[in-house]
């Protein structure tokens, strides 16, 4: 009660953007805007293409459609506020709005990881047990897998803002970040934050270890099955169906792992570098994933070419 009498709870936070690079914010906003626009346009094209092309109504492309929707939501939860900071000096954010942004960002990140696991499982079934593919990955099963991934993310992230809500925030209100990131917000509390820190790192580690472990297990089985094939052409074709997914995994997890490690153990890494990578792993995958699948997947590539260039003859390669 004494604390309440002598302190006022803060009602909003000040998002710095990228510390040390404030003079370049207007220029940094340009690639952020381009990535955001590319994410919205590219993923919209993927969704429309899959919807219009009956031959793409398969589990692999249903998962890709879910990924596209999630990528648009992830980019939309971060980029507008970043652009507001970089171009309009809109640094202030309401306390509850900050917690809402924090919740959605981390929820969409975990959904993204769940979908990458689901897509690895799809490739495992398609290559290792192809005769059972249509009976295992039915449309209801695909929907259930998507719902399980979404439910897992919602329940895992929900305690984060709730635990922050119980903390007192009296004097510190400056967040050295371009968006409301969990640990960046927790550090400002005027109380012991051990529970918050332990829960946050436990969620991050469990998702990363569990999901990467499942993906690695799937691809170990896939490689074993592929190298048992006698035909070189069959091997190339089987591996070709996995190429886009492997590229997506690398694009999604590489900056995420770097950001996670520098935040926890990279004490000598400049804050600006950490925040740039933390922002990249939220904006680059949503922008790049449609390009990867558009280039690597012939059915999508041909359909997109047909949509934009109806008179162009589609190559049979």
Automatic annotation (TrEMBL):
Keywords: Cell membrane, G-protein coupled receptor, Membrane, Olfaction, Receptor, Sensory transduction, Transducer, Transmembrane, Transmembrane helix
Record Gene3D superfamilies: Rhodopsin 7-helix transmembrane proteins
Coiled coil feature spans: none
Top-level taxonomic group: Eukaryota
One Gene Ontology cellular component annotation held by this UniProt entry: plasma membrane
Domain G-protein coupled receptors family 1 profile: 42-293
GO molecular-function terms, A-Z: G protein-coupled receptor activity; olfactory receptor activity
Transmembrane segments: 27-48, 60-79, 99-121, 142-164, 198-217, 238-261, 273-293
InterPro entries documented for this protein: GPCR_Rhodpsn (IPR000276), GPCR_Rhodpsn_7TM (IPR017452), Olfact_rcpt (IPR000725), OR51/52/56-like (IPR050402)
Annotated localization: Cell membrane; Membrane
SUPFAM superfamilies cross-referenced by the UniProt entry: Family A G protein-coupled receptor-like (SSF81321)
Main location: membrane
Membrane protein topology class: Multi-pass membrane protein
Function: Odorant receptor.
Similarity comment text for this entry: Belongs to the G-protein coupled receptor 1 family.
Protein name, per record: Olfactory receptor
Organism (species): Panthera tigris altaica (Siberian tiger)
């Amino acid at each position: 009660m004494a604390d309440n009498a002598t302190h006022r709870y803060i009602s909003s936070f000040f998002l710095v953007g990228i510390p040390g690079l404030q003079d370049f914010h207007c220029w940094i906003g340009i690639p952020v805007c381009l990535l955001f626009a590319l994410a919205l346009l590219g993923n919209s094209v993927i969704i429309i293409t899959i919807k219009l092309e009956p031959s793409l109504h398969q589990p692999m492309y249903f998962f890709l459609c879910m990924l596209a929707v999630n990528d648009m939501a992830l980019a939309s939860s971060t980029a507008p506020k970043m652009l507001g900071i970089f171009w309009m000096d809109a640094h202030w954010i309401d306390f509850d709005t900050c917690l809402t942004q924090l919740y959605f960002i981390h929820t969409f990140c975990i959904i993204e990881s769940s979908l990458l696991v689901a897509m690895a499982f799809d490739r495992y079934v398609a290559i290792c047990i192809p005769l059972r593919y249509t009976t295992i990955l039915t449309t209801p099963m695909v929907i259930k897998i998507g719902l399980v991934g979404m439910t897992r993310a919602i329940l895992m992230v929900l305690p984060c803002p709730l635990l922050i809500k119980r903390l007192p925030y009296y004097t510190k209100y400056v967040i050295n970040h371009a968006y409301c990131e969990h640990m960046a917000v927790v550090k400002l509390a005027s109380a012991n934050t051990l529970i918050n820190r332990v829960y946050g790192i436990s969620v991050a580690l469990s998702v990363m270890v569990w999901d990467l472990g499942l993906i690695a297990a799937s691809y170990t089985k896939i490689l074993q099955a592929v190298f048992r094939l006698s035909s070189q052409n069959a091997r190339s074709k089987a591996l070709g169906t996995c190429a886009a997914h492997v590229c997506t995994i690398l694009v999604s997890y590489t900056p995420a792992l770097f950001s996670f490690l520098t935040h926890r153990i990279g004490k000598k890494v400049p804050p600006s570098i950490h925040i740039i990578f933390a922002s990249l792993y939220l904006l680059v995958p949503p922008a790049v994933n449609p390009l990867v699948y558009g280039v690597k997947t012939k059915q999508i590539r041909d359909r997109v070419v047909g949509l934009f260039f109806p008179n162009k003859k589609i190559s049979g390669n």
